[in-house]
Fold:
Amino acid sequence: MTQTTHWLDQVRWDSQGLVPVIAQEAGSNDVLMFAFMNREALAKTLELGQAVYWSRSRNRLWHKGEESGHFQTVKEIRLDCDEDVILLKVEQHGGIACHTGRHSCFFQRLTTEQGQSQWKTVEPVLHDPERIYK
Structure:
């Protein structure tokens, strides 16, 4: 084990070599999104200063903003007390973190009216996703 990778060895990776990651906006503290990283993604994030995730659906590294231009500049990388969740404090470029064209992926709130619970969209689409993604 080299000194330069010791910090990566401290992370408790799951059986697939992944760790959950929460991206939080540095200024507002809004939770923007949830994703996963593998060792390479976390090392690349540190190297570039921009968020790089592991896309389970694409089965490859995913540099946030590679298609949309909505990059995340990483201000801090934190590890939780159990060493199995990463928190990125980021500056979200373009104001959109979600592939739906919204500021945050957490745009639905559970509401209960007259004994009925349902998910209600509470954040607007800022840009049409059809125009953002190739």
The longest helix spans residues 39-48.
